[in-house]
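My current task is to audit a protein record that another person submitted. Thanks in advance; the entry in question is below:
***
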Amino acid sequence: MSIRNSPEHDPQTVKIWIIDPDRADEAEIKNTAMIPSVVSLLLLKNPIQHVFYMTSPEKPYGDKNVSLCLPTGSRMSIVWDACTPHRALLLSDKGTFITKNAFLTYEEIKVDPGELLMPAEGYYVVSDAVLLENGSIFHIGDALFWRDNEEGILRRNPMKLLVEGVKGLSFRTQCADYYPLLGSELATVLAWTDHELYKGGRALDWKTNSSYMSNILSLPQTTTILTAAFGSHLASLGALVMDTDSVQPSLLICYETEGIWKTRTLLSTNGLQGPFQMLFISAALETLLVWNKDTMLYSFHNDSEWRYLRIMDSSNISQEASGSHIHHVVMDRSRNMLVKMENNVLFFCKFGMNKLFRLPTWNDPGRSVVLYINQKEQIIMLTMLDGGLHVQKYPLKMEIRSAMRGEVHSCPFIGFTHNMNKPAYYIDKEEVIEFWAQIVYHEGKNMNVTLSRNKDHVLQITEKTHFESVRYLDTTNKTFTIYQDPDYRDTTNNSDLIIKDIRNSSDIVTMELLPTQIDNSCNLPKNQISHFFVGCPPNRHIRVIKPQRIPCKMHVFDSYTIPGFVLGNSSKDLTVFYDWKSFGCVLRIHYKDEFQPDIELYDGETFVRSVDANFIVWENFHRKDYYFNMTMHEAACLHEAQTWTSMLVDEKRPEEAWGPNNYRSCFVDNSEKLGNLDQPYEIMNRSSMNYLTFSRENSAIYVFNVKIVDPNYSFCDLHAVFAVQTYGIPELDQLLPLYMLLSQSIISLIILCISFYGYTSIYRDMLQKKCV
């Protein structure tokens, strides 16, 4: 399969068209159909889309091919892209290998030394690496080096990377693509020296002068960074540090978006020697795994619970592996954790349990083996043999069952499901999200579901529980309602306060659903974590909807002139060149008709709901010959309402002068003076009887701006433009014939009346003479 005009390294989405041969259209059978039939559309509702990734060979780069190898005798290590795990980088003492299709194929990558000296060993000795979108960063000696995918040249530059004193390099193990942090990018790489921590993004542009890495933590000379990692929340970072005067490491946690580091308590590690490694587990509350070469400990829920991982009654894992040390740790999204020892002994536990148990041995102790998790969440075992790399799937579930045979393992629940299955949700003001969770268990187990979250002050949650019991099986169904319920109305005339309240209430909350009890034998869903963005959803906007009875014309004129006497900011005539793309069509409205904009809310092209919030309008070119049909008294205001006259002070522009930040309702009794309630009420609402009326002297074109001013409606700045063209008022050249006809009719009527009076008088005189 080939896809034209597409970069080879980009993912391509292929839509599958399923047909039923017995019920398909003839055109579908002959492969000439352009669209699916009705039957095929029904079949297509359940297949999901699958992303295929194209492979491409490394581009040739000169004649100098120098390998990148771990120190001789080192165990292999592997890194992969958290968002596209089919891309991985395997480091060994025989070379560095790259795959773009989860090791279906792979190849060794080498470098052109460029301006660097050729190493005496004939290859560069690498201690660690990270894989970016457009290349790789290698930790060589005490410096970082860059190799891009295009030229393959190994580069060193203090403007881009750290070139001395580098002690460690770390990469993001959780995909941040779906984290709803709008307008900015989270870091992908961490690197540190003894006293400073740096971060870098997902791609490095070598051609610009901008720096790739930025300093995010500087410590005094008496404090040393032991290791660093990305936190349980996608926007958080963690660093394990040691003070010279202490024998106990400290844990520093920081939200990348805030930059404020906080110290967390750590379970006593007295007697434990480094080097330490650290892995934060994806969770609503910071959850951490720390280990050295022999021992592992972990923390739950913001350090509320610290434990050592044990095998039987021992916390020394090395003793249970014939003295071998911990090589590396991998964990899938269902929290199945594998601890691989250097002698290839494997231990397993479901993260959250504190007991490890040994899995059957697959490889000889002397072989070089590393574990990798592909895009399908399958455990892949990579073994370096004399003939090359051996790739095989590791049947984790089968091996777990085999290892548990004869032991007492019983999952406390039979099934656990929920529908909190999106990585990100968006919550605007006045919006509510509901989801459910169900757990089924044997009678008497007393199971439940807990919803954990960070940033408790941002969102409110209510829970409803429904319990059922049938034939010794109990079922607990829980419904969670998530919403935000602050009142942003400004009752103090201090708009700065309401702006501050809105900023403090807009945030990202991470939530996690888990059973109250688990066991190593339990199956957990892969989706347990979701991020709730409290703020303006992306692409949210409003539209003024064209009423069906009103025609909406396009491109019927290029420009028009507004007489100076109807302008509020000038006495000169104004020629407007109409921007059809920005203003849209013009609504043709009879000059005697009243008009109220009908506003709808959209996310991109998706309709959300009709807008029932208060809004204001103003004419874009300062026309003042439009009116509101309702007074403040008729609107039932309790005191004088805001008006454009009162808001347009200090030469403010209309779009800045009045909005949600300073809106005050006239229906709230704030003990103000009553004021003049005979003024026009200039605030509109879908349910009100307040309408726009137009000039009855001249047909006109109005370009109106509409803006939502209700502070409790949305975090978004919701505004739109609509245009109105009135008709029905006769022009002067149309009235002249009418005036002439009317004048002639009046004159004829007068003559007729005079003639009638004259003839009547004559006739009366003749009758009188006859009678005499």
About this structure: The longest strand covers residues 432-442. Helices lie at 26-29, 38-44, 396-404, 495-505, 580-583, 644-647, 654-657, 732-771.
